[in-house]
Amino acid sequence: MRENGILASVVGLYTFNPKRRERYQKVKNLLKLAPPAHQPNQQWVADFTYLKTRERRWVYLATIMDAFSRKIVGWSISHTRDFNFTFAALKMALSRRKITQNLIFHTDQGIEYAGLNFQRALKESGLTPSMSGKGRCLDNPTAESFFHTFKTESFYQKVFDNIKQIRREFVLYIDFYNKQRLHSSIGYLSPEDYETANV
């Protein structure tokens, strides 16, 4: 692209830092090997995306989705991408769901998830980490699909001045998404209705 004068829209979001490698922990893609979830709290998939305010300031949205029902069980919104950002979403999910079985927690290999602090938090919570292959966003399609849906149905429909407005909008949207939005992949039910019908 560079030869043709085309620059990616995310230029400047990442800064290479070789020292970061010391804090990484690589994990196998267990989700790829596992059968599809047949009840809640067997497989969670986590990811984050970039949003921008009218002031052109970056805001980051992290979510945790139950792969069985497509329900968003935890989320976090922040101006910074660090352990506290992704851990806040994890804390929310753990406070809302009762884990009574082995649970696969699947992410990409970003430092926000692969960092030793986050991996330690997963293990201390009794969750089994799983990671996509390097640079393989298609290994986590349900999370990617949710972000596309949220941006299309909500975020791109309005202009947001600051992070507070984005957070307020997401609270409203996630209530609609979990309770009312129908999904073809779960029999045209909402995530909450699907869980109720199958538990």
Automatic annotation (TrEMBL):
Pfam families for the chain: rve, rve_2
Coiled-coil region: none
Taxonomy, superkingdom: Bacteria
PROSITE patterns in UniProt: INTEGRASE (PS50994)
InterPro entries: Integrase_cat-core, RNaseH-like_sf, RNaseH_sf, Transpos_IS3, Transposase_IS3/IS150/IS904
SUPFAM superfamilies named in the record: Ribonuclease H-like
GO molecular function, one term: nucleic acid binding
GO terms, biological process: DNA integration
UniProt cross-references to Gene3D superfamilies, sorted A to Z: Ribonuclease H-like superfamily/Ribonuclease H
Domain Integrase catalytic: residue ranges: 36-199
Record PANTHER family: TRANSPOSASE INSF FOR INSERTION SEQUENCE IS3B-RELATED, TRANSPOSASE INSO FOR INSERTION SEQUENCE ELEMENT IS911B-RELATED
Matches recorded under NCBIfam families: transpos_IS3 (NF033516)
Annotated protein name in UniProt: Transposase InsO family protein
Source organism: Pleionea mediterranea
